[in-house]
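Structure tokens please, single chain.
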Amino acid sequence: MSANDRLTRSLPHLQNLIKRDPDAYSEDFKLQYLHFESQFMELTAKPDTWNKSLAENISFVSQVAHCYPEECKGLSQMFMDVLRLYSTILNNDIRLVIVRALMLMRNRGLIDCISLCELFFLRLLQCQDRLLRVTIQAHIINDIKKQNEKHKNHKLNSTLQNFMCTIIKESNAIAVKMALDIMIDLYRKNIWNDAKTANIIGSTCFSKITKVQVAALNFFLCNNQNKDNDKDSDSDDDEKLTKKDILLGHRVGKKSAKRKKKTERALRALEKQKKKKKVEIFDYSALHLLYDPQDFAERLFHQLETSNERFEVKLLHQDLLSRLIGLHQLLLLNFYPYLQRYLQPHR
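Here you go.
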């Protein structure tokens, strides 16, 4: 058995022992940490190579770092420096292990939220790694949610909102889209449901990036039911099958008045269940929070008039403009002649 195997084979056991009594196993930790440092230095020579032993050591030290704050005070910086320098050339799996280690340390209060967000947005979103992006987005949302659990953390929220606003002005489509998705998610969770968030999202309605523009328009129109619609369609299929089963059950076997009444009762119960379906509730509160609805509508209409986007995107513009005009009693005279061209029979 190699020395590496002997050192790493009992890491989960050592991890549990350290968490129970850090002082009693400080020497064991120091020995393991020295081994980790030597392996981590080798990573800079071969950043694109997978190393299982190193991955296990990274997970181990991040799990017990809070038990030895003095010995591990430079650990997070070590991880962040490697990600900054080698973000795009690191082995995908090793990179994800390091990112998850940083997330764990952040959850335990060992890393500043802003520093981690800057690293994620400014460096890691350049990587062509969808799993990494999904992991980062989920972590940021959960972290902000956790920071606002007991009461609103206005200072942190304001700093992060300003940071997201800066990212949204960038040209990196992936970073802009993620920042927008995070803000939309936090608004819907009633964590960032203030005017500042609504207006930052509103600014993305004028983005040059089509998918960002469409996401913002859909947000204000409450067109966020894609997943729910999929679930509804699945449940509809189940109901159709149930109805079919009821009718087939009636056809099979001996016919009788009693069975006919039983089938009719089952069908009535099914119809009653359909009617009990929850009615969709649309939340247009974000439209009420716009600082200057008239100016917003005029800019949106100008964008519509000069747009070369596909027809579906233009329809989203028209829908949002209609809602704005109705909600805020706006005056946008040129909008009505514009709509006339869409009232022709060939449309």
